[in-house]
């Protein structure tokens, strides 16, 4: 006997029955209306609430919060209405989605679940759309049934349900829903696929939507295997650096060079995915340039949210948030207190404070410092000896008294200060992904 729609839904949601709370992303459209109705009438579920995100992109949308409120009131489900600002850009659809999911992330607490109403037809559209854009396996896996969101989870319990089944349920229960006028506009790629392409495909192949959705599942399994392979390959490359105080993601290059080109790209995609938006296939030539550069070169690969640097036999990820800081000279009138460096962390002196006046400057080239037992030495040569990555060297705060370079932070130099009764300590800036 074929299971009913409520039974299928509750079976899919089984793994999250003990979550602290469930939130429904409630647009007021068909799919989220059916999802809300199904769960509002189920028993023994976690506390249920709804979230309506108002994007403010069209005049018709101004009436939707009131509709959603009336539906939720009738079902006894609390509703939170969130108004967001959609950043202008090349893709309005993507900008609206980003704003929407940012709002969702603000609501979902630890262990809680956000439920969205995408269904089997949406999955087929997503696969076609990404296929036509030349997506890789990860993209062609389309929408996962669940993924992490903030401190909780996002779940799509209707992905195995067709739009026709949802419409039949809505009509049987006399539900009313919003028809977004923009969903009929063929200028949007997904609408074009929905109204112009998929009807032609299903006319020739009636099971096209089911087949496309099943293909996305197979590709999801394939991506899972690629992720497992990447974890194995990265385990060998995830060796600690000599500069653990940087707290920047980094990998040893030698284990990666032992892999085929395809496995290198797979490992790097897995490693970079939580750090940045990945480039398209044409831009992976930059990885080859960085990988194959001479050992004494300092190549970098600029990506959407930061830079990948190669320093010797190691690659480092430097997020964009850590790139800019003030190079201005700073006086340090009270060296007994820590000194804030704009965009570059904090300095502190320990031990007997050297006589002033003291200043903090940054490298200009040609600096000379007194090294115990070695005399006056060129700072550049000393930094080369200790192998400090070059992307850090320009950030090193240098302690001066007049024209005399007194000290370089102990973290970087690996050599003692001219006297042993004080030290200069640098605590680099805290970033989301490094230099913390």
Automatic annotation (TrEMBL):
Biological role stated in the UniProt entry: Ligates lysine onto the cytidine present at position 34 of the AUA codon-specific tRNA(Ile) that contains the anticodon CAU, in an ATP-dependent manner. Cytidine is converted to lysidine, thus changing the amino acid specificity of the tRNA from methionine to isoleucine.
Residue intervals of the Lysidine-tRNA(Ile) synthetase C-terminal domain: 358-426
Documented EC number(s): 6.3.4.19
Domain remark text: The N-terminal region contains the highly conserved SGGXDS motif, predicted to be a P-loop motif involved in ATP binding.
Keyword vocabulary terms for this entry: ATP-binding, Cytoplasm, Ligase, Nucleotide-binding, tRNA processing
Catalyzed reactions: cytidine(34) in tRNA(Ile2) + L-lysine + ATP = lysidine(34) in tRNA(Ile2) + AMP + diphosphate + H(+)
Enzyme class per UniProt: ligase
Protein name (record): tRNA(Ile)-lysidine synthase
Signal peptide feature range: none
UniProt GO molecular function: ATP binding; tRNA(Ile)-lysidine synthase activity
Pfam families to which the protein is assigned, alphabetical: ATP_bind_3, TilS, TilS_C
Entry GO terms, CC: cytoplasm
One biological process term in Gene Ontology: tRNA modification
Gene3D superfamilies linked to this entry: 1.20.59.20, HUPs
Protein origin, superkingdom: Bacteria
Family note: Belongs to the tRNA(Ile)-lysidine synthase family.
Localization per record: Cytoplasm
Location (main, coarse): cytoplasm
Designated gene of the protein: tilS
Keyword Ligase recorded: yes
């Amino acid at each position: 006997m074929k299971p009913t729609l409520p039974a299928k839904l509750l079976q899919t949601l089984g793994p999250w029955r003990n979550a602290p709370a469930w939130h429904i992303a409630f647009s007021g459209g068909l799919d989220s209306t059916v999802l809300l109705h199904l769960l509002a009438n189920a028993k023994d579920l976690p506390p249920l609430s709804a979230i309506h995100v108002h994007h403010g992109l069209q005049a018709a949308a101004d009436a939707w919060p009131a509709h959603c409120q009336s539906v939720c009131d009738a079902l006894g489900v609390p509703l939170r209405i969130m108004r967001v600002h959609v950043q202008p850009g090349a893709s309005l659809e993507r900008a609206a989605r980003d704003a929407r999911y940012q709002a969702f992330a603000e609501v979902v607490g630890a262990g809680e679940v956000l439920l969205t109403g995408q269904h089997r037809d949406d999955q087929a559209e997503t696969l076609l759309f990404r296929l036509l854009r030349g997506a890789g396996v990860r993209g062609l896996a389309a929408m996962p049934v669940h993924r992490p969101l903030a401190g909780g989870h996002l779940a799509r319990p209707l992905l195995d349900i067709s739009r026709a089944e949802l419409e039949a349920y809505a009509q049987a229960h006399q539900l009313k829903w919003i028809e977004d006028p923009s969903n009929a506009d063929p200028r949007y790629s997904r609408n074009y696929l929905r109204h112009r392409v998929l009807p032609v495909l299903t006319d020739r192949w009636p099971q096209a939507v089911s087949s496309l959705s099943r293909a996305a599942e197979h590709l999801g399994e394939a991506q899972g295997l690629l992720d497992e392979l990447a974890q194995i390959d990265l385990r060998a490359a995830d060796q600690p650096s000599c500069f653990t105080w940087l707290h920047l993601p980094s990998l040893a290059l030698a284990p990666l060079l032992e892999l085929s080109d395809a496995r290198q790209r797979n490992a790097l995609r897995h490693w970079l995915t939580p750090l940045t938006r990945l480039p398209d296939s044409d831009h992976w030539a930059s990885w080859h340039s960085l990988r194959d550069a001479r050992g004494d070169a300092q190549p970098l690969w600029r990506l959407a949210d930061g830079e990948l640097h190669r320093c010797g036999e190691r690659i480092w990820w430097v997020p964009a948030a850590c790139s800019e800081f003030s190079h201005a000279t700073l006086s340090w009138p009270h060296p007994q207190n820590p000194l804030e460096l704009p965009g570059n962390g904090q300095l502190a002196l320990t031990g007997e404070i050297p006589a002033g006046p003291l200043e903090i400057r940054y490298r200009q080239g040609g600096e000379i410092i007194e090294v115990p037992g070695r005399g006056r030495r060129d700072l550049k040569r000393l930094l080369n000896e200790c192998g400090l990555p070059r992307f850090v060297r320009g950030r090193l705060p240098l302690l001066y008294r007049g024209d005399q370079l007194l000290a370089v932070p102990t973290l970087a130099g690996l050599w003692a200060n001219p006297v042993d009764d004080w030290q200069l300590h640098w605590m680099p800036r805290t970033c989301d992904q490094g230099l913390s």
